[in-house]
Write a structure and sequence with these properties.
Elements (H helix, E strand, L loop, with lengths): L8 E7 L2 E9 L14 E6 L16 E6 L57
Length: 125
C-alpha cells in the first residue's frame, strides 16, 4: 500500500545485508524526492495465502509492516528543467523551497481533491 492505494509488486528477495529482511521491488515507481528522504511510508501487507516460507520451511503467516520512502523518483514534465521562479506563468506560481508547491497530504485511503470544473470532460467526449 502506498498512500492507501494497492501498488503492483515485482520480485521479492532476501536482503543480502540482513537475512531476516525481505526486499520487495515495485513494478511502478513511488514518488519521492531527489535525495531519497521523502516523508511517508510504504506499507506491505501479506495475507498469508501466497505460500511464503522461510528457508527452513516454516510457513510465513499474515503480516503488515511499514518502511521509509527512499525513492528518488520525481514527477516531471518535458518542460520541468526550463521553468523556474523567473519565467513561470502567474497562474502557476513556482517557489524555490522544497514542498512549497501548495500540495497537501491526505490520510491513507483518502480520495484526491476534485478537479476544477474547467478541466472536466463531458461524458460524451
Amino acid at each position: 500500500m502506498i498512500g492507501g492505494a494497492a501498488w503492483p509488486l515485482g520480485e521479492a528477495r532476501l536482503d543480502p545485508a540482513n537475512p531476516r529482511s525481505l526486499l520487495v521491488d515495485l513494478d511502478e515507481p513511488v514518488v519521492g524526492n531527489r535525495t531519497g528522504t521523502a516523508r511517508g511510508t510504504a506499507d506491505l501487507r501479506y495475507d498469508g495465502e501466497g505460500g511464503l516460507a522461510t528457508a527452513d520451511g516454516n510457513v510465513v503467516g499474515a503480516f503488515w509492516t511499514s518502511g521509509v520512502n527512499r525513492s528518488t523518483h520525481e514527477l516531471t514534465t518535458r518542460w520541468a528543467d526550463e521553468v523556474g521562479p523567473d519565467n513561470a506563468l502567474p497562474e502557476y506560481p513556482v517557489r524555490s523551497s522544497p514542498g512549497a508547491s501548495g500540495a497537501t497530504s491526505t490520510g491513507a485511503g483518502s480520495s484526491p481533491p476534485p478537479r476544477p470544473a474547467s478541466s472536466r470532460r463531458s461524458a460524451g467526449r
